[in-house]
Amino acid sequence: MLIRLSHTLNRGGPAFGRVSDLSLDQRASIARGDSHHGFMMHIYNHDGTHLDAPYHFNIEGRRVADLDVNELVFERPQVIDTPKSEAALITPDDLEPYADAISQCDLLMLRTGYCRIRASDPHKYSYECPCIAPATSRLIIEDYSNIRAVAIDAVSVGSPAFPEETVETHRILTGHRDYSRRYVLIFEDVNMDFDLSGIRRVFAMPLFIEQIDGSPCTMIAEL
Question: Is the pTM of this model over 0.85?
Answer without folding.
Answer: yes
